[in-house]
Structure formats: C-alpha cells, structure tokens
Amino acid sequence: TTGAPANSGSSAIVESAEDNPDGGCHIYRNGYYGSGLSVVEGILEVNIIQMTSIQMTESQAENSLVDFVVTCQGSLPTDVCTVVSDPTCQVSKSVVCDPIVISDECLLTIRRSFGEPGTYCINITLGDDTSQALASALISVNGGEYT
C-alpha cells in the first residue's frame, strides 16, 4: 500500500493497491477531484416570418424562386440548411446547406428555387457548434407564384 499525506487546503489523493485472487490488481483512489463545466445558451427558437415569391421574367420562368425571412432566438447561427420534401415531409427532394455570418441580430433571408409547381414541405435548420433549431412550413408553388 502506498499513500500521500493530505495537506490542509489542497486536494489529497491516496492510492492503494492490493493483490486480487483473480490474478489482477485493483487500485483505489480517494480524494477530491474537480472539473470545469461551460454552459452555452444555444439556438433556442427559429421562426419563418415571411415567404415572398420573386417575380421572374418569362425567359427565367422555368424555376420559381421564393425568399424565406427567418428569425431566431438565443445564440447566433453559423450555418443554415434547407430541406425541401414532399407535402408529408417524409421524402426529401433536395438539401442545401450554406455557411452564414450574422453579427448582430438573428434575421436572415434565404432564397430557394423550385423547379416545378407543387406543394412542398420546407425545413429550415439554423445551427452553430453546439446547437441546432428547426422551423417548418408547407408551401404551394404554382409557376412563379406561391400560396
């Protein structure tokens, strides 16, 4: 058995070792241990506050563009991902992820293209190194306009 005397005001660690009948050795440590813990706020909430169809010329009409205005609460995101799915939100049609830089207020506009008319489920995820938050919406795109 080995040991280190405890000093007042400092952490004491006492180690002891004993033989085990199984042929192994067990080490017992007694004393005070410390660790650090950091609490981060994270992205708490994401909201799609506006959807706007972008007017296109007739030569550009093969794709419909929609701008999504998004806000969030909590820490500022560093990336945004948009998943476009079928109306049930089960079958993904496209995924687009982009890095973003927001310096003050969490308010951003995301522009996405829709290749054909139809109803889509939109999932917008904002993320940073420690958290993610999601907002969803159903959108019906009709040849350059949405409802």
UniProtKB/TrEMBL annotation:
**Where would one find the signal peptide in this protein?**
none
Q: Which residues form the PKAT KLD domain?
A: 71-121
- What are the BP-aspect GO terms? cell adhesion
Per the UniProt record, which residue ranges are transmembrane?
none
InterPro entries from the UniProt entry? PKAT, PKAT_KLD
Q: Which GO terms describe its cellular component?
A: plasma membrane
Q: Which domain of life is it from?
A: Eukaryota
Q: What is this protein called?
A: QNR71 protein
Q: Which organism is it from?
A: Sclerurus mexicanus
User: Source taxonomy lineage?
Assistant: Eukaryota, Metazoa, Chordata, Craniata, Vertebrata
Q: Which gene is transcribed and translated to give this protein?
A: Qnr71
